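Sorry to interrupt, but I need a hand with the structure work. It will help me judge whether the discrete encoding reads sensibly. Write everything out right here, beneath this request:
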Amino acid sequence: MENLQSKLTLQNDVELPWLGLGVFKVEEGPELVQAVKAAIKNGYRLIDTAAIYGNEAGVGQGIQEGLQETAISREELFITSKVWNDGLSYDETISAFHESLEKLGLDYLDLYLIHWPGVDQYKEAWRALEDLYKQGLIRAIGVSNFQVHHLEDLAKVSEVKPMINQVEHHPKLTQGELRRYSKENAIQLQAWSPLMQGQLLDHPLLQEIAVKHGKSVAQVIIRWDLQSGIATIPKSTKERRIIANGDVFDFKLSGKDMESINALNENLRVGPDPDTFNF
């Protein structure tokens, strides 16, 4: 991990940038377009969105303008979207994928995820993702917010193993069991809400570690994710914060730092519980 272009290799040999930009709750409009452009201009190569965010068109515009202004190629970017739970049948998933692709203005996606496990329909949705993957329309497929039991259930009926599981992950929710299972099964974890929606920025221990390294608390948490082997997608719309979130490759947390941060775990969520989320 040397810079924002540093990548890890998924089980199917596709390369995933360690760090990207998330756009959860960023509304369509100039702020969104500028954030995506700022990320690309400042070295980000991974942009993560979802159908339910209602901002795929703006993300697509930001991508196109960002590519034009930087002269990098589409192939250098890694674009993710997700199918929502209001339609997880096979046909609905296929339709949702093509709708997302059209809104984004792209010919293919680098990663497509089932956004939440829901009840049992995710098996139909996964079959659709497998077919889209086999057709070459998606370079990698995965899930989001899946617990170990969901992954075990999916494994019984799937031909292709999920390459990524994107989950809530931060120092108050370290997902130990899921981390172990994922490592054993070559499923890459990717963290959403790595900063716990800003609730950790004034934590005394994290502030102490940040001062020691001459970094911000946000940078310490992002670095902790990366050193834990977890890819991450912090959200920001401000260029200075986008730049700061990416400035985590010039320092390293010690073993003691890592242990201290891991010990903050309380299994505390700021997002819904995947087992009780009422869709």
